[in-house]
What we know:
Blueprint: H1 2-12, H2 15-36, H3 42-66, H4 70-81, H5 94-102, H6 109-119, H7 125-132, H8 136-153, H9 165-184, H10 195-211, H11 218-232, H12 257-272, H13 277-290, H14 299-317, H15 322-337
Amino acid sequence: MGRIVATLIRLVGDFDVAEEAAQEAFAIATEQWRVSGVPELPRAWLIQTARHKAIDRLRRRARFEEKLDAYTAAGLSRTVEDAPDFDPGEIPDDRLRLIFTCCHPALALDAQVALTLRTLGGLETDEIARAFVVPAATMAQRLVRAKGKIRDAGVPYAVPDTRDMPARLEAVLTVIYLIFTEGYAATRGDTLVRTDLCAEAIRLARLVRLLTAPEPPAEATALLALMLLHDARREARQDEAGDLVLLEEQDRGRWDRRQIAEALPLVEEALRAGPGPFALQAAIAALHCQAARAEDTDWPQIVRLYDLLESYARALARVTNDAERRFLERRLREVQRREA
């Protein structure tokens, strides 16, 4: 759903229209595919159907506004007619473009993350509200304001150039981390792990490092390492009944040693640039993954890393506003959650 919405936003340039058109397309598919069967390229079918629905909506809006402002109507009509045809080859980067669009510095950090989770992650407003510990009505208003600010400011639907990227990178990395978090310990559904979300978060992290090459930021490198290390333990985290297996009880022979081997040099690279929060978490995960047995774990070193992480959080809390402080506290709770 998130990738389809991301593509639609690029095609029609409107968050709300894209979301509504995608919902319509899924509703049509539910009825039509039951009779005719699933098409050979279901995602392309959904995007094309949703695009037509979106264009219909924009045209109806244009006709309505024509009665009030002929100039505005003409501008909307040109936007619709100039929308490019769908090209399946353009899909892979749409999700990353949407993340960078939502993570614009004109928005507060919590608004950036909430808007991305709603638009890209497909979370409902009440679910996001619970995560931010605010009433659903409050979160709904925040989302409306965030979309309006992006629209009114003419924020481009694109990955920014190297000069503008640093202002958005922290929020982008956090969003990718939250996508992985939902995949690693799903809050909905019958399964503990959503492999698709874990794989997508890792893919996006690789793309971010490529965009910032040849010297990617340390925290971008650390985030990729952190996710690779956690994902390497995926096969051992559940028993045959689908129940959680704690770290010390996991069969370490089922851990993905290839991913661990890829991640360890990334951890070292990130730590050389300074101990940021993702780098510290990655170092903790690396110590767990390097221990052949649970009793071989270097717990004194892990305690020292947690002390550094706590010191980092306290220092940052002294210079951030309340919203950012609450956001950091949620991130630190996720660190503890990772130890399962």
